[in-house]
Sequence to fold (319 residues):
Amino acid sequence: MKITFEKALDIFNYPFFKLLRTAHGVHVKNFDEQSVQISDILSVKTGGCFEDCAYCAQSIKNGTKIPKQPLLDLETVLDAAHRAKKLGASRFCMSASGRCISSEAEFEKICEMVRFVKALGLETCATLGFLTEIQAVKLKKSGLDYYNHNVDTSPEFYPNIVSTRTIDDRIKTIEIVQKAGINICSGGIVGMGETNEDRIKMLILLANLKTPPRCVPINKLVKIPGTRVDDSNSIDDFDFVRMIALARILMPKSYVKIAAGRNTLFESTQALCMFAGANALFSSEKLLTVDNVKPGADKILFDKLNLHIENPRLDSCCI
Ligand code: SAM
Ligand code: SF4
Fold:
């Protein structure tokens, strides 16, 4: 049954403790409250992107000047994957800048990266922009477990953030990926000048997909100087917690990930988010072109919260 905006708004506006209690109740019905899934992410191809995503350091349309880096070689990627596994990551994400991977040779190299990373005993994830059906099937055959393709904000606010594509273009790739039997990882960014209504509409869009995403990353905007949203008002921490709680309630079986911007959240805010149902994080020191949490910080946090890290689910076929 489709979730209505009115229903989601009503839940979002529950008294804070009622919202947390409700979300936590949904969470413990579907997950171990003391388990957290850890991913690591590597930019395998960086910069020089012709898309105009307002938040992104890699767009040539923003005044950010990130040096263009061609596709990394397999050995470099595998070294990073080995390190990630040693640090407890169960999933390794490979990210490429750009609207899509148009070069056949590059695409084959990325499929090879997926095969070798999978062979290390890690879940594999890729985020490469738009995909064709043929590309999605090839990635599935290579052992890809997850494909990240964020919707980023509400349909109404989307044109303020990206003009070189539409949110429907993103949904089309999400459907192609799911049809190929790969788990979708799709969420968005908060703190770009959108309203709480936009944030709620983004979550409803995801929850009302034929199959909701297996993983929903909530990014807190990292304000990169030179981008079009670098002077936006930050989201209030309690609204951020409310977003996590609503994501949990609307998508009870999805992993809810606190993604970029986590290094600006107090440990206590992160604890509230996890009580509300956040159960996935990035452990890497860098998230593509921005800093993430400091090395060792998560071990301290997990000890304080009595959390353990989830093992790779290597049979993670599309749920
Ligand atoms: N190029 C791919 C694409 O556009 O789908 C991958 C982009 S990047 C790996 C994945 C996500 O990181 C983006 O979709 C966006 O949601 C998030 N992101 C990028 N820049 C960000 C920023 N400055 N602050 C917060 N999140 C950001
Ligand atoms: Fe390009 Fe992706 Fe950055 Fe958008 S988010 S500018 S598509 S690399």
User: Anything to note?
Assistant: The chain is about 40% helix and 15% strand. The pocket of S-adenosylmethionine (ligand 1) is lined by residues 55-56, 95, 97, 127, 129, 148-150, 152, 188-189, 219, 221-222, 224, 260-261, 288 (CB under 6 Å).
